[in-house]
Design brief:
By secondary structure, this protein is α+β, with helices and mostly antiparallel strands. It has twelve helices and ten strands. Helices cover 49% and strands 15% of the residues. It binds flavin-adenine dinucleotide (FAD). Flavin-adenine dinucleotide (FAD) binds next to strand 1, strand 3 and helix 12.
């Protein structure tokens, strides 16, 4: 038993076993799945199995078709999937969106949408980033205006992952512009709204961005030209989206940390097997050389620390702790996990020498995926800003 398993209940540890069992039939086809990922083909049968073993219902109460087993459980499942070489990219956004709907949606919306999510019939993506706003969400310009039973949506988004695979996107927009707020003497944190937008809506144009990622989904630029969204698809109160959104980002950060943690374990497993077997001088395995062993040992030590932080953040979310405190914990866990996974991939590549760059060993393609987590879904700079301001009480520079 590793030190971090003390942090998990028997039930939560069993999730790891059931994910491993579910994956048994896919493990011999790992190369096929890796190829599908590179070609951005959606692994529908794997998704159906996520639904079958209840992973899509972890953050959803039973009355809406979920199992309410919580974020710690889902975190463990994510870790195990990635450790075994499978990527749960769209499940991350679908789960965080589901959690947001559970906390903020109307009864009618929850009853309509959540059972579809938990059964695997509805996939979701998340759309906040805009070209002129970037990290500064309050600066977004996409506007939704109420017109009878619908909102009319105009604007654009960029870098939106998985639009081609998702049925709906949880979109962050303005229902009051910054200029209107200024005129009324109100802060720019007001006037943001969340709504579910059908990804096949007339008036929505999608352009695939030529990004290099390894998560099996594309990044899209989206243009909204008078897209009609049923008013019933509003998530939370009109204009009250800021709080709903920031609270929903905590599960996103924790699950991103879980992907990093799984990828770290995947790299360690591969590196250790290789280091025990590869011999180039006399009959000494390269793992006996401290220059190979110590970086791996260091990754192992940091990994235990990352897992403790990550499980604690997930447990705090499950316990309904103050979102600001969960924010600190989940940001810190994601910060450490993202830094660690780049070190882990690098150490595994170094251990494999030239083979670290061959497609067969499947390491070099992990590099881009690992590096991404320093930038998205939240950059390490913005986490440092968050901790400086909220935990150290230092003034903002921006
Ligand atoms: C592969 C990929 C997938 C993505 N998927 C999605 C998605 O599904 N949905 C979605 O909405 N978005 C998505 N994004 C967008 C992602 O969240 C943003 O790229 C990220 O938040 C940074 O925004 P930006 O690119 O505009 O950078 P900018 O805001 O231009 O920032 C550039 C750099 O400056 C730093 N910086 C900015 N302001 C400050 C400050 N005040 N203090 C210190 N440093 C600062 C940033 O940390 C960053 O390093 C994705 C991005 C990528 C690359």
């Amino acid at each position: 038993m590793t030190t971090t398993e003390f942090a998990l209940s028997d039930e939560q540890q069993l999730v790891r076993t059931s994910v491993r069992q579910m994956l048994q039939k896919y493990v011999p086809r790992r190369d096929e799945f890796r190829r599908m990922q590179l070609e951005r083909q959606f692994p529908q049968e794997l998704w159906d199995d996520f639904a079958r073993i209840g992973l899509l219902g972890c953050l959803v109460p039973e009355q809406y078709g979920g199992n309410d087993s919580g974020l710690v459980t889902l975190t463990v499942a994510f870790e195990e999937l990635v450790t075994q070489g499978f990527f749960p990219g769209l499940m991350l956004v679908t789960s965080m969106d589901a959690a947001c709907i559970v906390k903020n949606g109307s009864e009618e919306l929850k009853a309509r949408v959540l059972p579809q999510i938990t059964s695997g019939k509805m996939k979701l993506c998340f759309a906040v980033t805009e070209p002129n706003a970037g990290t500064n969400t309050f600066r977004i310009e996409t506007v939704a205006r109420r017109d009878g039973d619908v909102y009319r949506l105009n604007g654009q988004k960029v870098f939106i992952t998985g639009v081609e695979q998702a049925d709906y996107m949880l979109l962050v927009c303005r229902t009051t512009t910054v200029e209107e707020l200024q005129r009324e003497g109100k802060p720019k944190s007001q006037g943001l709204s969340l709504m579910l937008v059908d990804t096949k809506s007339p008036g929505l144009t999608k352009t695939l961005l030529p990004t290099l990622t390894s998560d099996g989904a594309g990044q899209w630029q989206l243009f909204f030209d008078d897209v009609q969204v049923p008013a019933d698809n509003l998530v939370g109160a009109e204009g009250g989206g800021a709080l709903a959104m920031f609270n929903s980002l905590n599960p996103e950060r924790i699950l991103a940390a879980a992907i990093c943690s799984g990828m770290t374990q995947h790299c360690l497993d591969k590196a250790v097997v290789y280091a025990r077997e590869r011999r180039v001088f006399k009959d000494t395995p390269i793992g006996a050389y401290q220059s190979i062993a110590h970086p791996l040992a260091e990754v192992k030590i940091w990994h235990e620390a990352v897992k403790l932080m990550m499980y604690r953040a997930a447990a705090s979310f499950d316990a309904g702790m103050d979102p600001l405190q969960v924010g600190t914990q989940s940001n810190m866990a994601k910060f450490l996990a993202a830094d660690l996974v780049t070190k882990a991939v690098d150490a595994a590549i170094e251990t494999h020498g030239g083979n670290g760059f061959s497609e067969e060993y499947g390491l070099i393609n992990l590099w881009i995926g690992a590096r991404l987590f320093k930038t998205a879904p939240v950059s390490r700079e913005m986490i440092l800003n968050y901790v400086s301001e909220w935990d150290l009480g230092l003034p903002r520079s921006y």
